């Protein structure tokens, strides 16, 4: 890889010698009997192949494949590390492989390239002994691409002659410029490096770029939420409370806790918790307030808003475009004894009066569809799939949704505009353009003061305070962006606007 904007090149043009067998003819179940290939490596290869050929999501597919192969304990851990680690570091490994093979990676058969990536990850980023990393990968090659087994052996031996630090030094020395250097050594597409740099520059914290890119390459710990006000599930009694979210915590056996607490304890990033709380705790709740979660699926934030609405006597409506995701919202809120109306439909075509809010909603969460560049650490392949063109498409959607949300606010009502992307076009760009359109009708709130007021500990935030940008490297959260905006009381209400339109 040369730090180009598209990331590692996956196109195959010329074979490395010998074809490869398809997954269908392979039958990975056999690997439990075939001790010449470790089942963990077979599972990792299988997932890499599915990600490459059928756009699968590793985090959804891997658990099923681990279960199907009967992997437990250390073997399951190895399959997870090999799959996620290889996918995250793909950009760096492809540059190493191109050097070691003496040819660009687009001249290596894709299945063979996946084998080399798996082997290189073991050699340069794990404690797997060199002989095991090479021999196990060659054994796997004998199953999936037998004619290329010799080539795999030769390339991995070449990779193993240089240690990881020296490889990174060599790649850095060969880089054209700083962006290219970071792209190849920190394994991100160059356009994402530029976008993250611009986001940090916006806060005057560009010196943190390397730490941010490195944080994207580390698996996040499983973070939990104890939905507030629902029985005995208190963070401090269940595990180690989060640094910032008053309802978040980590625990040694997170999934066992989730199962034991039947929906009252859920997996949720701490940044997502703070985003939902920024809306529900922006000011005291008046009983009877009407709340809307405009883009609710799969419902993580809806569940927290529902618990908060229940405690404060508010009414909550959740809206989601995709029916299957609306169903996930229903499941997410099942443990909260609040009657939440889940509407399936386009958020830009929503009539507050039909949803029981003729004067508009008092609080609206718009957790907008976005590139997700703030959650790269938990979606290992995502960085290679996103394209710069996605940004323009999504900002257009965000503009329509944010206008619809603002139009559905009651006078004095508060909108929380949230993204799990720090890309400035999706964050400051979307909100600044909207504020211009809304003019005097809108007033930005001191979002930083609200979030600091919620956080259990002092929170190091950049920017001017009107918006909040959280970061994986600084806060240990996804890179969530939060902007709170109020509709001024003098501004036309929904009912008045509807009357004027008649
Ligand atoms: C970032 S996700 C929301 C995540 C959610 N708040 C949570 O915490 O689980 C954005 C959601 O918006 C939905 N969506 C996209 N376009 C929409 C539209 N026009 N109207 C309503 N929902 C939409 C997507 O299907 C997706 O479920």
Automatic annotation (TrEMBL):
Q: Which CDD domains match?
A: AdoMet_MTases (cd02440)
Segment Disordered: which positions?
Answer: 1-31
Where do the SAM-dependent MTase RsmB/NOP-type domain residues begin and end? 192-488
UniProt keyword Transferase, yes or no: yes
Q: Which UniProt keywords apply?
A: Methyltransferase, RNA-binding, S-adenosyl-L-methionine, Transferase
Question: What is the active site of this protein?
Answer: 420
Q: Name one GO molecular function term.
A: RNA methyltransferase activity
| PANTHER family recorded | NOP2 YEAST -RELATED NOL1/NOP2/FMU SUN DOMAIN-CONTAINING, RIBOSOMAL RNA SMALL SUBUNIT METHYLTRANSFERASE B-RELATED
Q: What is this protein called?
A: rRNA small subunit methyltransferase B
Any one GO BP annotation for this protein: regulation of DNA-templated transcription
Entry's InterPro entries?
A: MeTrfase_RsmB-F_NOP2_cat (IPR049560), MeTrfase_RsmB-F_NOP2_dom (IPR001678), NusB-like_sf (IPR035926), NusB_RsmB_TIM44 (IPR006027), RCMT (IPR023267), RsmB/NOL1/NOP2-like_CS (IPR018314), SAM-dependent_MTases_sf (IPR029063)
SUPFAM superfamilies given in the database record = NusB-like, S-adenosyl-L-methionine-dependent methyltransferases
The entry assigns this protein to a family as follows: Belongs to the class I-like SAM-binding methyltransferase superfamily. RsmB/NOP family.
Q: Which organism is it from?
A: Agromyces intestinalis
Where is S-adenosyl-L-methionine annotated to bind? 295-301, 320, 346, 367
């Amino acid at each position: 890889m040369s730090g180009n904007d598209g990331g590692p090149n996956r196109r195959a043009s010329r074979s490395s010698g010998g074809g490869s067998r398809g997954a269908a003819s392979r039958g990975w179940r056999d690997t439990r009997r075939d001790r010449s290939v470790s089942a963990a490596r077979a599972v990792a290869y299988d997932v890499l192949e599915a990600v490459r050929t059928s756009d699968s999501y590793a985090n959804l597919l891997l658990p099923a494949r681990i279960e199907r192969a009967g992997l437990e304990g250390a073997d399951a851990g190895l399959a997870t590390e090999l799959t996620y680690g290889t996918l995250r570091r793909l950009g760096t490994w492809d540059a190493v492989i191109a050097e070691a093979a003496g040819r660009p990676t687009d001249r290596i058969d894709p299945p063979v390239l996946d084998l080399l990536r798996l082997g290189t990850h073991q050699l340069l980023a794990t404690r797997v002994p060199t002989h095991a990393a090479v021999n196990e990968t060659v054994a796997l090659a004998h199953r999936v691409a037998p004619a290329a087994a010799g080539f795999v052996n030769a390339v991995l031996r070449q990779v193993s002659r240089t240690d990881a630090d020296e490889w990174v030094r060599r790649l850095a020395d060969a880089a054209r410029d700083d962006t290219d250097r970071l792209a190849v050594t920190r394994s991100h597409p160059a356009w994402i490096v530029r976008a993250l740099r611009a986001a940090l520059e916006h806060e005057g914290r560009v010196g943190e770029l390397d730490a941010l890119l490195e944080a994207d390459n580390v698996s996040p710990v499983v973070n939990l939420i104890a939905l507030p006000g629902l029985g005995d599930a208190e963070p401090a009694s269940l595990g180690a409370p989060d640094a910032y979210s008053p309802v978040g915590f980590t625990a040694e056996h997170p999934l066992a806790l989730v199962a034991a607490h039947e929906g009252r304890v859920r997996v949720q990033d701490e940044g997502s918790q703070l985003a939902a709380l920024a809306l529900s705790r922006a000011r005291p709740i008046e009983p009877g307030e009407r709340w809307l979660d405009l883009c609710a699926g799969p419902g993580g934030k809806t569940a927290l808003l529902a618990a908060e609405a229940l405690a404060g006597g508010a009414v909550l409506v959740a809206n989601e475009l995709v029916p299957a995701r609306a169903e996930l919202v229903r499941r997410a809120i099942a443990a909260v004894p609040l009657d939440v109306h889940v509407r399936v439909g386009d958020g830009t075509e929503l009539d507050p009066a039909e949803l029981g809010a003729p004067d508009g909603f008092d609080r609206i969460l718009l957790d907008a569809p976005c590139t997700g560049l703030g959650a790269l650490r938990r979606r290992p392949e995502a960085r290679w799939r996103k394209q710069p063109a996605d940004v323009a498409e999504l900002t257009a959607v965000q503009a329509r949704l944010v206008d619809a949300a603002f139009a559905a606010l009651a006078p004095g009502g508060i909108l929380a505009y949230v993204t799990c992307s720090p890309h400035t076009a999706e964050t400051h760009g979307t909100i600044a353009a909207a504020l211009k359109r809304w003019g005097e009708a809108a007033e930005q709130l001191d979002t930083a003061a609200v979030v600091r007021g919620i956080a259990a500990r002092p929170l190091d935030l950049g920017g001017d305070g009107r918006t909040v940008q959280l970061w994986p490297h600084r806060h240990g959260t996804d890179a969530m962006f939060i902007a709170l905006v109020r509709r001024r009381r003098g501004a036309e209400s929904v009912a008045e606007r509807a009357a004027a339109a008649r």
